[in-house]
Amino acid sequence: MDTNLPVAAQPRVVIVGGGFGGLRLAQELADAPVQVVMVDRNNYHNFQPLLYQVATGALEADSIAYPVRKIFAGQKNFFFRLADVRGVRPADNAIETNLGDIHYDYLVLATGSLTNFFGIESIEKNAMQIKSIPNALNLRSFIFQNFEQALLENDPEKKQALLNIVVVGGGPTGVEISGSLAEMRKRVLPGDYPELDLGKMQIFLVEAGPALLGPMSKKSQQDAEGYLKELGVKVLTNTSIKGLENGRAYYSDTEYIPTENLIWAAGVNGTALPGIPAAAVTRNKRVTVNRWNQVEGEANIFAIGDLANMVTEDAPKGLPMLAPVAQQQADLLAKNIERLLKGEKPEEFNYFDKGVMAIVSRNRAVVDMPNGWHFKGFLGWLSWLFIHLILLVGFRNRIVALVTWAFSYFSSGQALRLIIRPFNKRDVKDSTGKKAAEHAAATLEYNATPSAVQRPATVG
Ligand SMILES: Cc1cc2nc3c(=O)[nH]c(=O)nc-3n(C[C@H](O)[C@H](O)[C@H](O)COP(=O)(O)OP(=O)(O)OC[C@H]3O[C@@H](n4cnc5c(N)ncnc54)[C@H](O)[C@@H]3O)c2cc1C
């Protein structure tokens, strides 16, 4: 019964997801009179803002992940189950998992988001995504496998397709990954692949909207585009990739970019679980919550972070999908759960925006502060490094990241270009462990502007 969890004398708070929101909530409930049960399909917390560095060989996967059990060692009211949550049964106060049912007094859904392919099947089948650590490792292997393949290819178009990289989505992830790939082309590949004519390798950053970094200031948008152009990235705005087949990324019925390497960073969907009342689930699978994160129509079910669609005066279309939103909502929800236990009224959430930033490459980043102040270049880059270093979970991870960054800075290049587990597209599984095609039914139709759902990066 209930996956052998101890029968609790205190109310049980079940948290689904150990990402930014779930982790913070469980930590904030350490001294609350509740039993905390976290359920996640991974036994580690994944620091998503640095996934692109794993994908481009700048950091090891281990340095951006941290074991959940280690984080909570010593927290007496905390229990963890490694399980895939498949649905919610509000009438029974239970969640369904692959291990069996788990009952709750309060349920907090913090399951984050998934890549949104906008219903374009050929892209879902053939593109690479960057939402999880396996995704990032696959991407790293795939790019290097294709360079190896390019050495053997004699057909000029096929060779070009193996060398070209197309990044779709001009939000911070797209900007960061194209900048990092351009650095790799400049500093790493000439030494590793002297037989390849790297002058022919092209990196494209394709954005459906009129500008990169949609939610940032005009200055940041222009500076980031300028930096990318300096690095030789071809920036295509007002352009939508409509399909990817036989090594061709089509941006109209007949026009295409030859590429085997297409990285889809154009948008995300929520991850609403079956059983959540349909009235609360939005078109892009987020879950509508009130100002204390309670799911519409459910007294004891809450959603936080990327999953939660919370409308405020400042965010009439819903708060952005950002780590600080998830963490701040978790902070307040921990206090509100205690208030509810005492029969008090919960407090309303207000997002405190600390600013947004995006890194382009070494010595180049753009930062917008909430007071309208904008800075860039070396100072922006240093701020980005410092903030990401202190936000990384675990002392070891901070040290490893710092040493790895310092080493690549002074040795001029990403060090980690091993193909440890060769990537085969036919085996592709997404972060949920499902084959890509199984997700086709769950993704949105291509009826929204991709850039409308891109996230801005944040300062902290
Ligand atoms: C490449 C990339 C770069 C980013 N960069 C930034 C940045 O610079 N700044 C910023 O503020 N934000 C950034 N973000 C966004 C940020 O990572 C998210 O806003 C944040 O992770 C949301 O936190 P969350 O707790 O809602 O979900 P997540 O952190 O995504 O955690 C969700 C957790 O739920 C688990 N889970 C999901 N479904 C199930 C299930 N059915 N059963 C069991 N477990 C489940 C997952 O395994 C995961 O551990 C970035 C995101 C990506 C992908």
Task: Describe it.
With 460 residues, this protein is an alpha/beta fold. It folds into two domains: 2-115 and 269-341, FAD/NAD(P)-binding domain, CATH 3.50.50; 121-266 and 355-453, 3-Layer(bba) Sandwich (FAD/NAD(P)-binding domain). The chain contains twelve helices and 25 strands. It has helices spanning 20-28, 51-55, 68-71, 121-126, 133-152, 156-163, 172-187, 189-192, 218-230, 323-341, 377-391, 395-411; strands at 12-16, 35-40, 44-46, 65-67, 78-82, 85-89, 94-97, 100-103, 106-109, 113-115, 128-129, 165-168, 203-206, 233-236, 243-245, 248-250, 256-258, 261-264, 268-270, 287-288, 301-303, 308-309, 356-361, 364-368, 374-376. The chain has a five-stranded parallel sheet with strand order 5-2-1-9-21, with helices on one face. It has a five-stranded parallel sheet with strand order 11-18-12-13-14. Strands 6-7-8 form a three-stranded antiparallel sheet, with no helix packed on it. Strand 23 and strand 24 form a beta hairpin. Helix 1 packs parallel to helix 10 (323-341) and helix 5 (133-152) packs antiparallel against helix 6. The longest helix is centred in the N-terminal third of the chain and has 20 residues, at 133-152. The two termini are 41 Å apart. The site of flavin-adenine dinucleotide has 36 residues, from helix 1, strand 2, helix 2, helix 7 and helix 10.
Straight-line N-to-C gap: 41 Å
Assign the CATH topology of the largest domain.
Answer: FAD/NAD(P)-binding domain
- Tell the overall outline: globular
CATH architecture of the largest domain: 3-Layer(bba) Sandwich
What small ligands are held by the chains?
Answer: flavin-adenine dinucleotide
Q: Which bin fits the share of residues in helices?
A: 25-40%
Spans with pLDDT under 50 lasting ≥5 residues? Answer: 436-457
Report the sheet with the most strands, covering strand number, pairing sense and barrel closure: 5 strands, parallel
What class would the helix/strand composition place it in?
Answer: alpha/beta
How are the strands of the biggest sheet laid out side by side? 5-2-1-9-21
Total helices: the number is 12
How large, in whole angstroms, is the Cα Rg? 22 Å
CATH class of the largest domain: Alpha Beta
Return the average pLDDT rounded to an integer: 90
In total, the number of domains comes to 2
How many strands? 25
